[in-house]
Amino acid sequence: xIDRFLSSIEGLAPSTKQRYAEVVRDFLAxxxxxxxxxxxxxxxxxxxxGDEGSRGTYRGFCFTVLKTFYETxxxxxxxxxxxxxxxxKNEEPTLLYLRKAEMEKLLEAIASKPPMVQALIRITxxxxxxxxxxxxxxxxxxxxxxxxxxxxxxxxxxxxxxxxETLNLLDKYLNQRxxxxxxxxxxxxxxxxxxxxxxxxxxEILTELNLYKRGLGWHGNRRGVTTILHKAGMSERELQxxxxxxxxxxxxxxxxxxxxxxxxxxxxxxxxxxxxxxKK
Length: 280
Known about the structure:
Elements lengths: L1 H7 L5 H18 L7 H13 L4 H18 L6 H7 L13 H10 L5 H12 L4 H6 L5 E2 L2 E4 L8 E4 L2 H13 L18 H14 L9 H14 L4 H7 L7 H5 L6 H9 L11
Helix pairs in contact: 2-4, 3-4, 7-9
């Protein structure tokens, strides 16, 4: 089923196809194996996602993937009007992301992991690096003290300055390798590390820390790094360059605010209004 589904999809990047496949596999695991599936199976799956804490944005994405899956398999789907009624909505303005304290726990937790895993996680906490960018890295892109990351959507490599600990971990990892594969990061099978393997590594660590929730994947870390740097004083223009975004609006999308955070800052910095403790 999945092979037929993926072969029918055209115009999508391999990484996007992989995400589609992951959704369908999860759907089949939740509702069970059958010869064909109904709309009720979709609703059951979406409900399970909601019960497990998945946000409306992610459930809406899964709904869209399953629509394409159902159309490929020629199973019944809702009419356009019905679909607008049952498709999950993004009920919250904020998306899942790792807070500063959680990212600190993440860095502490990887101390016992292999050098490659430690280096990967440290790189993603230095800069909001995409999975596909790590997947594409070659040995020649590592020129200490810099890592030259090619942007996922084209463009010249960006020089990422690495801290001494990350440099030591990368050197240790590469010195342990005996292969001649040009890829900077390889899996246990000796091949270039896949995007799904990167996701699994991150998910396993979050699960060990009891931090994992559906929807809190690699992008949760990317949003976390962007948010932390913004709160530390970096402007959105600076973040655009640092995160290698083409659009100046993308950092704004990634920066997350906690409930009440804006009001608290207004009370602290507003030049015309003085707030006293216990008074408005």
